[in-house]
Design brief:
The complex is a heterodimer of chains A (247) and B (600). Chain A has 247 residues and is mainly β. Chain A has one domain: Cupredoxins -  blue copper proteins (Immunoglobulin-like), CATH 2.60.40. Chain A has helices spanning 13-33, 50-57, 59-62, 83-86; strands at residues 35-42, 66-68, 87-92, 103-108, 111-113, 116-119, 125-129, 135-139, 142-146, 151-154, 160-166, 173-178, 182-186, 193-198, 201-209, 212-222, 226-234. A five-stranded mixed sheet of chain A has the order 6-12-11-8-9, with no helix packed on it. In chain A, strand 4 (103-108) and strand 5 form a beta hairpin. The longest helix of chain A is centred in the N-terminal third of the chain and has 21 residues, at 13-33. Chain B folds into four domains: 64-198, 2-Layer Sandwich (Beta-Lactamase), CATH 3.30.450.20; 206-306, 2-Layer Sandwich (Beta-Lactamase); 326-396, no CATH class; 398-597, no CATH class. Helices cover 42% and strands 14% of the residues of chain B. Chain B contains 16 helices and twelve strands. Chain B has a five-stranded antiparallel sheet with strand order 2-1-5-4-3. Chain B has a five-stranded antiparallel sheet with strand order 7-6-10-9-8, covered by helices on one side. In chain B, strands 11-12 form a two-stranded antiparallel ribbon. In chain B, helix 1 runs antiparallel to helix 4 and helix 3 runs antiparallel to helix 4. Chains A and B meet through helix 2, helix 3, strand 2 and strand 5 of A and helix 1, helix 5, strand 3 and strand 4 of B.
């Protein structure tokens, strides 16, 4: 068993809440130090979500109508990774892990938010259904319905990447990355910008997409005052091609 | 023989059996063609429903444009995008505006459910995928505004990238929703600021909408991928189709193995159950892989058996029967049957009855065989023989025709063959010991079927051949005037000793003998004889016809030539003056019997 099965399918909301505010504790604590890490993830257009490929395979029956809106520039028609939801920044460095009771993957809008969480061994990860309909999560140590508002806890004990799917929403995929030395993880903004308040120290930042490390900023020193800007960080060396447009 | 009437019964029996066979073939053919036609109809219905769903999606997508271009909606989404947590005021303003637009969208989409008061569910989603506002969502009680998102649905992702599209969702394994999504564009050179969605739950009202527009009975269903039972979520059947969905269930197993249903086409083969035929079709969208689909049903009218044939017939069907033709065939068959019976039964029986009456009255001594036919002739023949036998036993004068054997003893053995196959070359075998006119010359070739005994007396004891007796030159007692039968040679022979035989040969009058020496009398005799032979020939031909023997190739010239040869032979052989030839039937074949007559 890689995971310890949670004794109850529904954890107390308090635990969930604690897990949600845990990342904030990192920034709150860092706020006192007034250090901030900044970067901007670029090249997300080269990352193609796996559900798009799946949708392409079933394009014959995925819809009966699909047309681009002439008011929208073609550049925006390309379906690529959504930095806000699909990318995760794992923070490696000194100090205690800031996961509190654990990490949370929300089932919201028929997708996992975030799509990937990076946690150290033994950290609990909660799947919480924020959708007004039932999900059925399948993955290591879980194969169950999650009704609206319900949660399920998994607790990876070993390093690795673990994928989870949903039988009721084929587009849904979520990944848990269990790694050593990770103290927190954060999601970029919609435009790929990353701002993380941190105590001054030297950190390594790894960017994950669908459970895979796509880029890393190693041994980056965060100053005590002001922003420590890592500038652009390319998550994909491949520029989007015209053929990648749409599905 | 009564062939026609017997054949008529056989024909009627065959016709009846053939009619029953044809009836079953027709029923099976009807059912087969009906099944084939039904498949075509149901398949066509499925296509129509598919097209309607596409058209319906287009209408809804077009109707949704009034939401995507609405300035209030756009302003609300712009505000939401800029907020980490969407402000309640923004949500309320958006919700109010969506409420105003919902009914208009339904009207534009021609969604006439719930008496035309069926506003669609509308959603405004910001660029983050968060639901800024929604109206009429039937799961609103499960929604928490701050966590309500839709950004993971492929259709919404598409819309947030500038795509217009439709989709079908399945929620909670039993809720099927038709979805259309449009991007909300504020600036032409910027990505969409959000998307608007319109959802229509597939229920009985939606099924009614589809059914009324397509004229097809439709039932929407879901077979969840991890479930074992199908759930019918909406159904409707126009009354005119005669289809009822009462008790309608779907067996998922019958679709599991259907290669067509599981192909890209998504339409099953025709499933026929009870009185309806169904084609199941997957519904396009995300629901395709989640077991959602629709069933198009048609009522099938099959005929189980001939008894059910009339049950399903209406007045129009009955009027289509060609009564004159049917009545004509029936009447014709009846008349033919009567006709055959009349000719083969009634008339011969009547003839027998008539002749029997004459016979009973003493107007004739025997039943005339020539006037009778078929079995009645045999009956008459048997009666005649029986009468003769009774007379003989009682010591009366025999009235039967004398035959050669009686006169001459055993006649030469002759092959039993048809007179038609007579050897006309005149080289017939001679009976041993029988005198011949010339060695190896003509015997009685024309009479190879000459019975060894007299007609009707095959069992009479053969008597040794006796030389012909010299004609007795004394008057004989006159033969019974009413007896048309020729006189027997034996009777002639016995007439010298006994005077109790009816058939006698009168002594030739001297004047006739004298006249015979003159050519004049000879010519007279020849002419009479020729007339008699002509009559005999006609009777012979007639008898052959009655016996079913061929008459082609028979000519009087040949016939009379043979008679003449035989007559000459017999005249020499028996020293008689002339020979009488009579036609009779033996063993179903025409035969001739020669009776030597000594008197002129």
């Amino acid at each position: 068993m890689l995971f310890r099965r949670s004794p109850g399918s529904l954890r107390p909301l308090l635990v969930i809440a604690a897990a949600l505010v845990a990342p904030l504790a990192l920034s709150l604590g860092a706020a006192n130090a007034a250090g901030e890490f900044r970067t901007r993830l670029v090249g997300t257009s080269g990352l193609r979500p796996s559900w798009v490929a799946a949708a392409s395979a079933s394009a014959g029956h995925a819809y009966s109508l699909r047309e681009f809106d002439p008011l929208v520039k073609k550049d925006f028609n390309v379906i690529t990774a959504d930095a806000e939801h699909d990318l995760t920044v794992g923070i490696y460095g000194p100090g205690d892990a800031a996961f509190g009771q654990g990490a949370v993957i929300r089932l919201a809008g028929a997708r996992g938010v975030p799509g990937t969480v990076v946690v150290p061994k033994g950290t609990a990860v909660f799947f919480r259904n924020d959708d007004p309909f039932t999900h059925h999560i399948i993955g290591p140590d879980v194969d169950r319905d999650l009704k609206p508002g319900e949660s399920h806890k998994v607790q990876p004990k070993d390093k690795g990447v673990f994928a989870y799917t949903d039988t009721l929403f084929p587009a849904f995929k979520a990944w848990i990355v269990v790694d050593d030395g990770v103290i927190a993880n954060r999601a970029p903004a919609l435009d790929g910008s990353v701002k993380i308040a941190l105590e001054p120290n030297e950190y390594t930042f790894k960017i994950f997409f669908e459970g895979k490390e796509k880029a890393a900023i190693n041994n980056f020193k965060v100053d005590a005052k002001g922003s420590s800007d890592a500038k652009d960080t390319a998550v994909s060396p491949v520029a989007p091609s015209a053929s990648a447009s749409g599905k | 023989m009564m062939l026609l009437s017997r054949f008529w019964y056989a024909i009627l029996a065959v016709a009846l059996a053939a009619s029953i066979g044809l009836l079953y073939i027709s029923i099976h053919e009807h059912n087969r063609l009906r099944a084939t036609d039904t498949y075509e109809i149901v398949s066509h219905d499925r296509d129509v429903v598919d097209w309607f769903l596409q058209l319906d999606a287009r209408r809804r997508l077009d109707a949704l444009a009034i939401v995507s271009v609405d300035s209030a909606v756009q302003d609300g989404l712009v505000k939401a995008n800029g907020q980490e947590k969407i402000d309640a005021g923004v949500r309320e303003a958006l919700k109010k505006r969506l409420n105003e637009l919902a009914l208009r969208v339904a009207t534009l989409a021609r969604d006439e459910g719930k008496g035309g008061q069926n506003p669609v569910m509308l959603f405004a989603v910001d660029a983050h995928g968060r639901v800024a506002a929604s109206v009429n969502f039937d799961r609103q009680n499960l929604v928490k505004d701050e966590t309500f998102e839709m950004g993971g649905h492929p259709a919404v992702v598409d819309a947030l990238h500038g795509w217009l599209r439709d989709d079908t969702w399945v929620l909670d394994r039993e809720g099927v929703y038709r979805v259309v999504v449009r991007p909300v564009v504020k600036q032409a050179d910027a990505p969409p600021i959000g998307a608007v969605l319109a959802l229509r739950r597939v229920d009985d009202t939606y099924a009614k909408l589809v059914s009324e527009k397509t004229g097809s009975p439709v039932a929407f269903y879901v077979i969840p991928p991890d479930g074992n039972a199908a759930i019918v979520v909406g159904r409707e059947a126009p009354e005119k189709t005669g289809v009822s969905f009462d008790g309608f269930t779907i067996d998922p197993k019958q679709l599991e193995g259907d290669k067509f249903y599981n192909s890209d086409n998504g339409a099953s083969s025709l499933k026929t159950e009870k009185d309806r035929s169904t084609i199941y079709s997957r519904i396009v969208g995300g629901a395709w892989d989640l077991g959602a689909g629709y069933a198009v049903v048609r009522k099938v009218t099959t005929i189980a058996d001939p008894g059910a044939l009339l049950q399903g017939a209406n007045e129009d069907d009955k009027k289509a029967v060609p009564i004159p033709l049917v009545a004509g065939v029936g009447l014709g068959a009846l008349l033919l049957g009567i006709l055959f019976t009349l000719f083969e039964h009634s008339r011969p029986l009547s003839a027998l009855s008539r002749e029997a009456k004459k016979y009973a009255k003493g107007e004739q001594d025997t039943l005339p065989l020539a006037k009778l036919s078929g079995d009645y002739r045999k009956i008459a023949q048997d009666v005649n023989e029986a009468t003769e036998r009774v007379i003989s036993k009682g010591g009366g004068a025999s009235r039967k025709a004398a035959d050669l054997e009686q006169i001459l003893g055993p006649v030469p053995a002759a092959p039993q063959m048809s007179a038609f196959s007579f050897n006309f070359d005149g080289n017939a075998p001679q009976a041993p010991g029988a005198p011949t006119s010339k060695p190896g010359g003509a015997g009685n070739d024309l009479f190879p079927n000459l019975p060894p005994a007299g007609l009707g007396a095959p069992a009479s004891t053969p008597k040794p051949a006796t030389p012909p007796q010299a004609p007795v030159q004394r008057p004989q007692a006159p033969a019974a005037p009413a007896a048309p039968v020729p006189q027997s040679p034996q009777a002639l022979a016995q007439a010298n000793d006994e005077d109790d035989e009816a058939t006698q040969v009168a002594r030739i009058p001297e004047e006739l003998m004298r006249a015979a020496t003159t050519g004049e009398q000879q010519m007279i005799d020849n002419a009479d004889e020729l007339i008699a032979w002509r009559k005999t020939f006609d009777e012979f031909v007639e008898m052959r016809k009655k016996c079913g023997e061929a008459t082609t190739g028979l000519s009087f010239e040949k016939f009379q030539g043979q008679l003449r040869k035989n007559k000459e032979q017999l005249v020499k052989q028996y020293n008689c003056k002339r020979v009488r030839f009579t036609v009779y039937e033996k063993d179903g074949k025409a035969a001739l019997k020669a009776t030597p007559i000594k008197e002129g």
